[in-house]
Amino acid sequence: FISTLTEGFFVSFCIRIASCIHIVDNPEISSISVLMVLVPGLAIVNAIRDIIAGDLVAGLARGAEAFIVAAALSFGAGLGVLLFDFIGF
């Protein structure tokens, strides 16, 4: 959880800084593009596959893990944007 939270924070904060010094033209598209690489898509698909196969405990456990990773990623990205706006670059 902490590593994923840190990754989301670091990505969004660095892209906002890059936007401030005119390296990146559109920070929203850039941050979405980078954060999509970190989204646990394969874990979600495996969770659904396990549930369909009848292994409910493993499917729910993988689904919960994927949800926690996605929530930590979005929370970290939100913190990065809020901190950048709070500092006032």
Explain this structure.
The protein starts with a helix and ends with a helix. The chain has 4 helices and no strands. It has helices at 2-20, 27-38, 41-53, 56-87. 18% of the residues are buried. The radius of gyration is 16 Å and the shape is elongated. With 89 residues, the chain is mainly alpha-helical. The mean pLDDT is 92. 85% of the residues lie in helices and 0% in strands.
Using only CA atoms, what is the Rg? 16 Å
Order of helices and strands: HHHH
Morphology:
elongated
Mean pLDDT reading = 92
Number of strands: 0
What would the keywords be for this entry?
89 residues; mainly alpha; 4 helices
Quick gist of this model?
This protein is mainly alpha-helical and 89 residues long. It has helices spanning 2-20, 27-38, 41-53, 56-87. It is elongated.
Element layout with pairings:
Elements: H1 2-20, H2 27-38, H3 41-53, H4 56-87
